[in-house]
Design a protein that fits this description.
By secondary structure, the chain is an alpha/beta fold. It has seven helices and seven strands, in the order αβαααβαβββααββ. Helix 3 packs across helix 6 (about 185-195). The model is unreliable at about 1-5 (pLDDT under 50).
């Protein structure tokens, strides 16, 4: 079911009321619901625009006047080919993460959590990297609560994942060399803000252990925001396929218009 509404229309508009009533009844009767969301769900959360002339990208770009990049280029893996564009990317992501930290989940985020609480949500899929779903208590694919420890360290408890982050999570970082994943601490954030990628702690530990036993030193990798850029594969790889949900009653799409 697709429902569109003109925000300039009166809330008492008969066709709008009928459409919303129909949607409400469909949701109330359904027991297996899949939700797919995009940027529109977070527009009212206080995250600043970065595409406009006075947006976040323009402010960061002023710090790197020699960088020849468009806003879209910040989300293309090709940026890692150039040290200036790489530094700009790290600074931009640090500023964006800071803005997201000050944001609050929208009613739409809490609606998805309510569906889960009532046992109606099969799974939620989002293109967003802000992690606002987790703040409502929804277990996300990057949540530490769904990650195994011990022998199965790093593997996800797939059945416990309620929200799949298709483009990653800006609140996590991963190593470019060993792929180790960590929470983005304030220390890492400040390094990114200056355009510098921090060293991977796991690589550093292995490096120091090998030096201590006079073994050949290995290169230490650096950390980057754990988001999925254009021309990149999702770090979870084939783990995403079991999350393709079947036999649902209804699929709710929330998109930008």
């Amino acid at each position: 079911m697709l429902v569109t509404r003109d925000t300039n229309q009166s809330s008492s508009d008969i066709s709008t009321r009928h459409a919303l009533t129909s949607l409400s009844l469909t949701v109330s009767k359904s027991k297996r619901i899949v939700v797919v969301t995009g940027a529109g769900i977070s527009c009212s959360c206080g995250i600043p625009d970065f595409r406009s002339s006075d947006g976040l990208y323009a402010l960061v770009k002023a710090k790197y006047p020699d960088a020849v990049m468009k806003g879209r280029d910040l989300f293309d893996a090709a940026l890692f080919r150039d040290p200036t564009s790489t530094a700009l990317f790290y600074t931009f992501m640090a500023e964006l993460k800071t803005s997201i930290y000050l944001a609050t989940p929208s009613p739409a985020h809490y609606f998805i959590k309510t569906l889960d609480t009532k046992g109606k949500l099969l799974r939620s899929y989002t293109q967003n990297i802000d992690g606002l779903e987790e703040r409502t208590g929804l277990a996300c694919s990057s949540s530490e609560s769904v990650t195994n420890t011990g022998k199965a360290k790093g593997k996800l408890k797939t059945k416990e994942v309620r929200n799949v982050q298709l483009h990653g999570d800006i609140h996590r970082v991963r190593c470019l060399m060993c792929a180790a994943n960590f929470k983005c601490t304030s220390e890492y954030l400040e390094a990114f803000r200056e355009g510098n990628p921090p060293d991977c702690p796991e690589c550093k530990t292995r490096f120091e252990e090998r030096i201590a036993r006079s073994a050949r030193a290995l290169k230490v990798g650096t950390l980057r925001p754990s988001i999925v850029l254009y021309c990149e594969l999702h770090p979870l790889g084939g783990s995403l396929f079991p999350w393709v949900t079947r036999n649902m009653d209804v699929v709710l799409f929330h998109t930008e218009t």
